[in-house]
Write a structure and sequence with these properties.
The chain is mainly alpha-helical and 157 residues long. The protein has one domain. 73% of the residues lie in helices and 0% in strands. The chain is built from seven helices and no strands. The longest helix has 29 residues, at 126-154.
């Protein structure tokens, strides 16, 4: 009798959930920290491209990155989702972070800055490439936050 290949093997999501760094929350914290570092780098890219002044580069008028207060809020939410001793606080933080990342991804794709940068500078520029990096890292943080929320919900008393 022939068996379907991969039928007895766990799916990619199941393997990801069971990874020690995902299970402990370390992957979420690390990804949120990487996202914050990417936000800081994006500010320097905006300065180098002349798109923003120093005061605008990490504020709410930035063109190449997420505002630094948003990045810090995402890091705090990740920390609470992983380190809070109160299960409800951790779960709410993980869900809020996942929603925050979804909004950030949608805003990054459709807020106009990316489209304007492509229209004025072309598709192959540092700003557009960096926007792609930020979207990918934000997606990873969001997915890890969803996995953390699911994990916390399963282990809730």
């Amino acid at each position: 009798m022939l068996r379907e290949s991969g039928r007895d093997q766990p799916s990619l999501i199941q393997r990801l959930r069971s990874a020690p760094s995902v299970d402990s929350g370390r992957a979420l914290l690390l990804a949120a920290l990487v996202l914050l570092v990417c936000d800081v780098i994006g500010g320097f890219i905006a300065l180098g491209a002349g798109a923003n002044s120093f005061n605008e580069a990490w504020g709410f008028d930035t063109q190449y990155t997420v505002p630094l207060p948003i990045g810090l809020a995402q890091l705090v939410l990740a920390w609470l989702a992983v380190r809070s001793t109160r299960a409800r606080v951790a779960w709410i933080s993980a869900v809020t972070l996942a929603v925050f990342c979804l909004i950030s991804i949608l805003a990054g794709l459709f807020d106009g800055d990316l489209i304007d940068n492509i229209g004025s500078d072309g598709f192959f520029t540092a700003g557009v490439a960096w926007a792609g990096v930020l979207l990918v890292v934000t997606t990873v943080v969001g997915l890890l936050a969803v996995l953390r929320a699911q994990q916390l919900r399963r282990h809730r008393p």
